[in-house]
Design goal:
Layout (H helix, E strand, L loop, with lengths): L1 E4 L6 E6 L2 E2 L34 E4 L2 E4 L12 E5 L3 E7 L2 H6 L4 E11 L2 E10 L5 E3 L6 E3 L7 E5 L7 E6 L2 E6 L9 E3 L10 E4 L5 E6 L2 E7 L5 E5 L6 E7 L19 E3 L4 E9 L1
Length: 282
């Protein structure tokens, strides 16, 4: 396995296994009309996942504005280490981040090749403030996958009899429940229309791993142990599928806008460090 990443957003840009590219190539991949499907590849979602209602939130009684998925994906990280098997990056709070999100933090991201087939992605958030901080966190890697041909499926490693599918309305979580797409107790079959209503957002998940398959051929295993939500998303007709482990989601459509009251928001005390990881095996 060989990987590439960049300082901008600390974003992973390539995963090559046995000479074959596994990660969607973003702006390098164009449709039949020469247009980009999506100009990202594996953005980091911090300090929010999804959208906040009306693009604003209330922290300590003051109003702050943030775009979808927060700001980390658009900022340049400091490169801490870059070897053949380990890439590590750091983002520290600064004057600009404090205008959008009034907390002092350090966000570290690492990509570690554990063996010739497995990549570990680790996030570490440290509270360097003198008060409790709250944040959202998630991954968003896009894998090459011609899902529109109807042959691909996502299989969970356990039976999913109580899983919940959330419905999006204008980017916010609806009060209505989306259709349950589970077949044979553990499988979601992908087709050309599956993302017509935006991402699939799954919660109350029994499994800690999913497998992306093309027919009976395994493409990858994705271990998201510890993450309460999983997003699955692509653009209409695009040659990729994102498998997204999240700790929280977009605001609900009837959200009161208070940041610390967001569902599953992570809270850590001064000097405390929050760590999480997911693993991708090909």
């Amino acid at each position: 396995m060989k990987i590439k990443s960049k300082k901008q957003g600390a974003e992973l840009t390539s995963i090559i296994v046995n000479g074959e590219e596994k990660l969607f190539q973003g702006s390098k991949t164009l449709d039949e009309n020469g247009n980009e499907y999506w100009n990202r590849q594996a953005p980091i979602l911090f300090p929010i996942v999804g959208q906040i209602k009306d693009g604003k939130t209330i922290i300590d009684g003051k109003e702050y504005h943030m775009g979808q998925h927060g700001f980390a994906r658009d900022l340049e990280f400091e490169q801490l280490e870059k070897t053949q098997n380990l890439h590590r990056y750091l983002l520290k709070y600064n004057e600009e981040t404090l205008k959008k999100y009034p907390y002092k933090f350090e966000l570290k991201v690492s990509y570690k090749i554990e063996n010739e087939n497995t990549l570990k992605v680790e996030y570490e958030v440290k509270n360097v403030d003198d008060k409790q901080i709250e944040f959202g966190l998630g991954g968003h890697p896009a894998f090459i996958c011609e899902y529109s041909n109807g042959k691909y499926k996502v299989e969970f490693n356990k039976e999913e009899t109580k899983i919940k599918f959330s419905k999006l309305e204008n980017g916010l979580i609806s009060n209505k429940v989306a259709k349950n797409l589970i077949e044979n107790k553990n499988t979601i079959k992908l087709n050309k229309n599956i993302f017509d209503n935006d991402a699939l957002i799954l919660s109350n998940i029994n499994s800690n791993k999913v497998t992306l398959k093309n027919g009976d051929k395994k493409i990858l295993d994705f271990d998201f142990t510890g993450f309460p939500y999983l997003g699955i998303w692509s653009k209409k007709g695009a040659p990729f599928v994102c498998i997204e482990p999240w700790f929280n989601t977009a605001d609900k459509i009837d959200s009161n806008g208070i940041f610390e009251e967001k569902e599953n928001i992570i809270k850590i005390q001064p000097k405390e460090v929050f760590r999480s990881c997911f693993k991708i095996s090909f």
